[in-house]
Amino acid sequence: MTSARTRDRLVQRLSENGISNPAVLERIRNVPRHLFVDEALASRAYEDTALPIGQGQTISQPWVVALMTQALLPATGNGNGNEPPLRKVLEVGTGCGYQTAVLSPFARQIFTIERLADIQRAARTRLNELGFGNIRYRHGDGFKGWPGQAPFDAILVAAAPAEVPATLLEQLAPGGRLVIPVGPAGQQELLRVTRTPDGLQRELLSQVSFVPLVEGTG
Fold first, then answer.
1. pTM confidence score
2. Among the listed residues 167, 123, 25, 3, the one whose alpha carbon sits nearest the alpha carbon of residue 178
C-alpha cells in the first residue's frame, strides 16, 4: 500500500481539499511516509489521517502537514532555481520527523526541537539515514524556542499550547510567519501569525486537533 497509485490518490485528495501549492503537493507525493510510522502501520501510511508513533504522540494528518507547510511559504512562490524560499525555520515538535522532511527543501536551514529524548533520537537517526543535511536538532523545551539562532523567518509548531507563546513571537523575524495550533482539545484553531510593520497579524486557517504543547523535557 505504498505504491505510486496510493500516493497519487492522497495528493488528489489534498488538492481537492484546498492544498493549492504544487511544490507542496509534490513533496507530499515524494516523502516516504511509510518510513516514519511503525511497520505495523505502514499499510495505512498514505491515508489522510494521523497515526500513533508512541509515547502519546502522533504523526500528523498529511492534509495538516501540507496546510502548515503551504501557510509558511511566501506568496511569491517557492524560490528561484535552487534557492529555497525560506532561510531559517524553527520547528517545535520534531515528532517522527515527517513534517521536518516535508519542509526541508523549502528552507536553507531547519532548527527542530523535540522534548522527548527517545523520539528525538529516532527522528534524527531516520532523517540522517534519508540524507537530510540542512537540519539541526535539539532535545529541549519548545516553549523556549532556539534563541541562539533567532530570528527565524518561519516558525512551525506541531503541538497546541493554550495561547501563542510570547517567547516564540519574540524569535520571529520582520515579515516572518508563525503557524501554530492553539487551544484546548476539541477547540483548537490553527493560526498564522505574521510580523508586519504594523504589528502582529493573525489569521485563522482551520480547526485542528493536536497533542498539547508541554513544557519541560522527557
1. 0.94
2. 167
> Which CATH fold topology does 64-208 show?
Rossmann fold (3.40.50)
Report, as residue numbers or ranges, the catalytic residues. 60
For residue 138, give the C-alpha cell: 535539539
Contact predicate 54/192, CB 8 Å: no
Q: How many residues does the chain have?
A: 218
4's grid cell: 505510486
57-59 and 188-196 strand pairing = unpaired
Nearest of 136, 134, 132, 177 to residue 153 by alpha carbon:
177
pLDDT tens for 56-107 read 888 999 999 999 999 999 876 554 456 899 999 999 999 999 999 999 999 9
Residue 125 has φ and ψ, to the nearest 5°, of -60, -45
CA 95 to chain CA centroid, nearest Å = 9
Q: How far apart are CA 149 and CA 178, in angstroms?
A: 16
d(CA 154, CA 177): 5
Residue with grid cell 486557517, as numbered in its chain: 205
Nearest CA to 173 out of 72, 70, 66 is that of 72
Residue 84: cis peptide before it, omega within 30 degrees of 0: no
